[in-house]
Amino acid sequence: MSDGNFNRSLLPKGELSAGIKVGKAQMRTKAEEAFDKILKREELSYLSAEQKQILEDLFRQALR
C-alpha cells in the first residue's frame, strides 16, 4: 500500500486545493487554445468575425 509520497510529489507545492485549482486553470487554458484553433479552421471561414466572437463568448461562459 502506498504511503502517498508518490501522489504528493506530482502536485504543485501547497495544499491539495491549490493543486486542484492549478490543474483546472491549465485545462481551461488548453480548452480555450483548442477552441481558438477550431475557429481558425478553413471550414469555418464562412463565419463572420461577429459570429466567431459570439461563439467564443458562449464557449467561455460554458467553461465557468
Describe this structure in words.
The chain is mainly alpha-helical and 64 residues long. Helices cover 70% and strands 0% of the residues. It contains 3 helices and no strands. The chain has helices spanning 5-10, 16-39, 49-63. Helix 2 packs antiparallel against helix 3 (49-63). It is elongated, with a radius of gyration of 18 Å.
Major sheet characteristics: none
Structural class: mainly alpha
Stretches where pLDDT falls below 50 for ≥5 residues?
none
Element-by-element helix/strand order:
HHH
Strand content: under 5%
Gyration radius (Cα, Å) is 18 Å
Mean pLDDT: 83
Helix content percent band: over 70%
Characterize the overall form.
elongated
